[in-house]
Design brief:
Layout (H helix, E strand, L loop, with lengths): L1 E4 L5 H8 L6 E8 L3 E2 L2 E10 L1 H19 L3 E7 L1 E4 L3 E9 L2 H18 L2 E7 L4 E4 L4
Parallel strand pairs: 1-5
Antiparallel strand pairs: 2-7, 3-4, 4-6, 4-8, 5-7, 8-9
Helix pairs in contact: 2-3
Length: 137
Amino acid sequence: MITIVRDPIDNNAVIRAVSSHQAGAVLLFLGTTRQFTGEKETTALDYDCYEEMALKQMTRLAEQAKEKWQLQGVAMTHRVGHLELGEASVAIAVSSAHREAAFEAGKWLIDTLKEVVPIWKKENWSDGTTEWVHHGC
């Protein structure tokens, strides 16, 4: 399950996508909209992406993680559009035989996604200003 969505992320669907009787660990990471970025107060976030390329990159990352950590499953969903405080912008789930591999793979996936996948975030600040942010490609 590798998707870009415009509606709220269905956490249960993400978990179901990686469920396996061979897995002793299922890890779910949710990236949520926080109120403060450093000293600046955030009121909302807007996400945009180059969808075709984002899906290709996310699929490639999932395949790399499955191979490196011998995962049973990988699911990644990123939301685009306008998000209010507390809403999830990204969900990553992995399943593996053991928890150590799940934690390592989950961290690698979110860190690498933020670096290489063409998804951009616009911070909407409480003072009325905005700023587009992307830390990778």
